[in-house]
Every structure is written in structure tokens, then in C-alpha cells.
Write a structure and sequence with these properties.
Length: about 90
């Protein structure tokens, strides 16, 4: 699962890859594509729900390390229930 955060629009969009057999239209779901380009990535580990409290600090730490591309939104990639990858878009 992925999540895309758009702070300008105050939205949090949950995303999942579409499989060949999926019928998102039947569920009223919208199709979209995560923005391409370079991302600085980090990982956080912990048990839910406590892990979620570390996302903002992790994103802030990544933002401080590079020139952020403010046009593209940051992404959370939920690799496992206790592991989240944080992706901050950077200028490439």
C-alpha cells in the first residue's frame, strides 16, 4: 500500500497497485499514477499504531537532507505492517 500526502490540498490518498483482474470502476475507485522522479528514501520500524507517530519526524529528517521538489508530494510505502518507507521527492 502507498499513501500520497498533498499538504497544499490537505489530502491523504491511499493507493495500491492495480492487478489485471481488478475492477476499480466497479468499486467507484479512481485510477492515478504516483509521480516519477528522484526520491530520498528512509525507513521506520515499529508496531502499529505507535509507528504512525514517527512518520512526521522521519519526513522532516529526510527533508532536511536534500533539496525537496515541492511540486511532487511525499509518499509513504507500507512495506509491512511494522515497516514504512518514507519517500521525499527531491530535485534531480
Amino acid at each position: 500500500m502507498y499513501a500520497q500526502i498533498n499538504e497544499d490540498q490537505n489530502t491523504y490518498t491511499v493507493c495500491t497497485p492495480v492487478r489485471q483482474d481488478d475492477r476499480p470502476d466497479r468499486l467507484g475507485l479512481q485510477l492515478g499514477t504516483l509521480a516519477g522522479g528522484w526520491y530520498l528514501r528512509g525507513k521506520i520500524f515499529g508496531e502499529p499504531p505507535l509507528i504512525y507517530g514517527h512518520i512526521a519526524d522521519g519526513m522532516a529528517e529526510l527533508r532536511a537532507m536534500a533539496q525537496v521538489d515541492e511540486v511532487r508530494p511525499p509518499v509513504e510505502f507500507y512495506r509491512r505492517r511494522d515497516q514504512i518507507e518514507l519517500w521525499v521527492p527531491i530535485r534531480g
